[in-house]
Amino acid sequence: MIKRLEWKQGMDLEKMLDRTEETLGSILTSVQEIIAKVRQDGDAALFAFSEKFDHVRLSSLQVPAEEIERAYAEEDAAFIQTLEMARDNIRRFHEKQVRNDFVLPSADGTVLGQKVTPIERVGVYVPGGTAAYPSTVLMDVVPAKIAGVSEIIMVTPPGKDGVIPRAILAAAKVAGVDRIFRVGGAQAVAALSYGTESIPKVDKIVGPGNIYVATAKRLVFGQVDIDMIAGPSEILVLADRNADPVHVAADLLSQAEHDRMASAILVTDSRQLADAAQQEIERQLVELPRAEIARTAIDNHSYIILTENMEQAVEAANQVAPEHLEVCVEDPFSYLGKIRNAGSIFLGRYAAEALGDYFAGPNHTLPTSGTARFSSPLSVDDFVKKSSFIYYTKDALAKVKDRIADFAEREGLHAHARSVTIRFEEKEEK
User: Fold this and answer.
1) Lesser CB count within 10 Å: N end or C end of the chain?
2) Which helix (H) or strand (E) holds 297?
3) DSSP 422
4) Contact predicate 280/274, CB 8 Å
5) How many CA atoms lie within 13 A of 424 on its CB side?
6) Using one digit for the tens of pLDDT, what is the confidence trace for 8-23?
7) Element (H, E) at 104
8) At residue 175, does pLDDT exceed 80?
């Protein structure tokens, strides 16, 4: 049964929800060993780990072009159309995020500016195992393509027959992935980070995964860049007394079915809605194919928080800083300016969270575990680098050289100061 809390002023929801990371313990040691083995043995380690963890003996790692084309051709035509429509929506949204170079010239001859350069090679991790996620392919690849990434390498674990799900391969073709490798887990992250005989080293790794994948991404950060350390999925539904409890319960369960650590929270000022939603959760939960997973998430990590008014409800939502925030109220746009912390915001009674997962256009790779307080969804910005540039004429530098030298001397960096003043010293004739 979902737990219930009565909101009190000054309540620390972040502490109460206890969204601390899973204890790494032996996982950390295992992942370190996997990374070391891949660095040492390359492809041989990947083949061995595939047999050990995925129970499949592979003869090759790269998925040939013919296999991708066949998957695309054999996939249901209506689903291909859905993938293409979703891709176009994602592209339309993310194209608005593109940043341009800028130049700031001055009359004294100085030129300042910023140069935006795409990352050259990106690795995209697509989870496998209990479920296939073609939506992850679209969400991670389309912004990279818009940014101008030169090469996109995708890794995903194969099934026990060595085959990648058809929907994943079809989505990869629709999105424009350059190369695909059938390898998953921490070993895939290691391969992308350091390179093997078959898999090239990348500059950045994006995409969600289990605790082993997340730990591996944490350990290789610095060797490569990563998007984020994603925690369990979360949803918070902010609802007033007129919200439909059937819809509210369905939306909460849409995240609870992700995994046993997922969190689903309802915040409302209506006791009647809280009671009805609680009953609906129990009624709908037993009908789900993933009921066992959802039950664990609901019982252990989910809450109904009852507030005195909707102002308190908004404050509670800001404290939680959820990955997904649904605003199921009469006038959702009047709440938008009050929301400070959320990964993605769904406004109104018909903006179901699944819209964001699959189709609407904004990215579904979102900050979790309260990190929406300081971080953002995956975007085109994640696939570019920004370099500043500076140009000064001799006259322009002459006007400020003494100030720069003084600044450097105050920091005890005499060579810094001299690098400026030496340009104005008269050279001795030989």
Assistant:
1) C
2) helix 291-301
3) G
4) no
5) 15
6) 877 777 777 766 555 5
7) strand 102-105
8) yes
